[in-house]
Q: What sequence folds into this?
């Protein structure tokens, strides 16, 4: 988008359905996935052939408390952004009061709202953000920056006990790539841009930022920076802290800028402090990001290992080798089983032939002693670059996989994975219709601890399920490889009894997993931020004194607690 193009109006900015993930007219379908019904029955005790889903949530049936924003403040905010860009409608206030964590989805559907934001304001420039912040301070408002609202850490939700008016500042109108320095490979980008719009603007000029979190379609650059996000291609492009080189942050007392230079020694890193600050240090208005030429060739290749331990050895060997894949990912046995259950029934002749080939391959692997139902682990590695580089790296990885007991499946399954990677979030809403939670916990683990963390998390989760006498399905993948370790990303599905006990049942399982991370030297989260959800473990993670230091910085920066108070520490 060029500087001259008109900005979208508030109501044109991309937004989730108020009660769930993503687009209104998109939902998860299982009728074309024959292995999904038996999996749901055996793993979580839901018989989809018999069970009926609950009705779709209806906002008209819920009571939405009126806004408490004083008329005078409304007038002042509208004078800054224009009447159309200050929105007080119920649906907008409900949507902006929750992120997209499981507890958020429970609360947003249940109604009985304790505290909603009072208004949503959509600035169109950094100058407008500055004026809004000044009004917030003068009028003692609470201001919550908002990107795509995709956080799963409680980071955009007002404190239920907050008595002051709460205003959400939706950044979605600030969606432009301002300029690209083609020599340095740096792009200045407004912070409210959503993933697809950012990549479209970059790719039409031959560039990419390479950051693709699973939430890509409904999250923004500013949100990524404010939560220290990590995308699935971080092996090559880095986590967001490697990509964002410079920042502009609007603070109630002015604008802070960190320069976009390749290295710096200006004392403790202010730049790093802002990354992950979840709106507590100000509003990120612009990021200067590292961009790369779109690679001429991109291929995702699938591999299979007989079990997790072989797979991890292979992944570690790839991380230590001379190849630099765009991503490396290893699903454990249960996740492989889940992935196979998500495969659509073949309809074309080509698809039917491919399914037959797969059956034959699995039969052969069984004859070689592989457990193809629960143990074998699928892996994906993405290669980018010139044709020669891709071919060379594929050959090296193929050898590494073979040396570690695995086989190469090829580009077919890899391409399917690549096409479907943003569809999974819709599954959570579908499952909730049947009173089943599907959620995730992620952590970082060193190569020396990774197998131990993997197995103890499973033990802890299944012990918790036995204690409550209910089924539970857990699976995991390893992604985001580093020299010293990788991210473990656990997904779990548990049925729940009733809406009244839902959150208690959820936290019973989730907290057990989080606590296990802490007891095994891992971190509270690899890339899902702290907010309020992970706050109970922050002192264990960074020490009590460390948390005190961060608390002190926030208090000094924002003595009136106007900037997204209560988040992180
Ligand atoms: P929001 O949710 O709107 O805000 C998050 C926090 O950032 C809040 O504290 C908010 O106040 C603050 N904030 C937002 N914009 C600004 C700004 N301009 N200035 C200052 N503060 C701001 N995360 C990953 O990293 N990788 C993943 O692969 C991933 N997958 C996910 C999949 C699903 C299904 C879901 C629901 C979430 C996933 N997440 C993932 C979590 C989430 O998408 C990230 O935390 C993301 O970075 C949030 O971006 P957002 O624009 O939606 O921010």
A:
């Amino acid at each position: 988008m060029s500087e001259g193009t008109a900005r979208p109006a508030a109501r044109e900015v991309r937004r989730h359905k108020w009660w769930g993930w993503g687009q209104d007219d998109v939902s998860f379908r299982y009728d074309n996935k024959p292995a999904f019904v038996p999996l749901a029955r055996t793993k979580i005790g839901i018989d989809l052939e018999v069970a009926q889903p609950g009705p779709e949530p209806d906002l008209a049936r819920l009571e939405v408390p009126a806004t408490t924003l004083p008329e005078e403040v409304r007038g002042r905010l509208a004078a800054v952004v224009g009447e159309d860009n200050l929105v007080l409608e119920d649906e907008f206030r409900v949507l902006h009061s929750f992120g997209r964590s499981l507890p958020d989805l429970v609360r947003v559907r249940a109604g009985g709202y304790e505290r909603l934001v009072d208004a949503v304001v959509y600035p169109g420039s950094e100058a407008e953000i500055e004026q809004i912040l000044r009004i917030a301070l003068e009028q003692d408002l609470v201001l919550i920056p908002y990107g795509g609202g995709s956080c799963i850490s409680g980071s955009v939700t007002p404190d239920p006990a907050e008595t002051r008016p709460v205003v959400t500042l939706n950044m979605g109108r600030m969606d432009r790539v301002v300029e690209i320095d083609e020599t340095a490979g740096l792009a200045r980008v407004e912070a409210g841009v959503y993933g697809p719009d950012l990549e479209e603007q970059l790719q039409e000029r031959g560039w990419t930022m390479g950051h693709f979190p699973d939430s890509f379609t409904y999250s923004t650059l500013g949100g990524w920076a404010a939560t220290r996000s990590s995308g699935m291609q971080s092996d090559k492009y880095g986590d967001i802290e490697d990509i964002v080189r410079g920042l502009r942050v609007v603070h109630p007392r002015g604008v802070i800028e960190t320069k976009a230079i390749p290295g710096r020694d200006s004392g403790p890193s202010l730049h790093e402090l802002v990354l992950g600050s979840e709106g507590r240090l100000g509003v990120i208005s612009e990021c200067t990001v590292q961009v790369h030429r779109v690679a001429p060739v991109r291929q995702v290749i699938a591999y299979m290992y007989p079990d997790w331990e072989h797979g991890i050895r292979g992944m570690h060997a790839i991380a230590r080798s001379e190849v630099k894949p765009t991503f490396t990912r290893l699903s454990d046995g249960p996740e492989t089983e889940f992935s196979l259950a998500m495969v659509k029934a073949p309809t074309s002749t080509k698809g039917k032939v491919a399914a037959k080939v797969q059956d034959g391959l699995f039969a052969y692997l069984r004859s070689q002693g592989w457990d193809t139902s629960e143990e074998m682990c699928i892996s994906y590695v993405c290669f980018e670059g010139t044709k020669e580089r891709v071919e060379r790296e594929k050959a090296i990885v193929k050898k590494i996989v073979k040396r570690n007991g695995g086989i190469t499946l090829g580009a077919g399954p890899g391409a399917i994975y690549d096409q479907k990677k943003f569809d999974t979030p819709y599954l959570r809403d579908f499952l909730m219709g049947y009173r089943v939670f599907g959620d995730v916990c992620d952590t970082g683990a060193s190569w020396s601890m990774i197998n131990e963390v993997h197995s103890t998390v499973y033990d802890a989760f299944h012990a918790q399920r036995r204690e409550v006498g209910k089924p539970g399905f857990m699976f995991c993948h390893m992604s985001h490889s580093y020299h010293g370790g990788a991210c473990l990303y656990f997904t779990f599905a548990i049925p729940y009894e009733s809406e009244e006990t839902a959150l208690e049942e959820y936290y019973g399982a989730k907290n057990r997993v989080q606590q296990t991370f802490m007891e095994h030297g891992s971190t509270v989260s690899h890339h899902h931020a702290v907010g309020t959800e992970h706050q109970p473990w922050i002192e264990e993670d960074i020490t009590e004194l460390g948390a005190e230091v961060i608390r002190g910085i926030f208090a000094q920066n924002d003595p009136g607690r106007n900037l997204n108070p209560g988040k992180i520490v």
Summary: Residues 43-170 form a domain with the Uridine Diphospho-n-acetylenolpyruvylglucosamine Reductase; domain 2 fold (CATH 3.30.43.10).
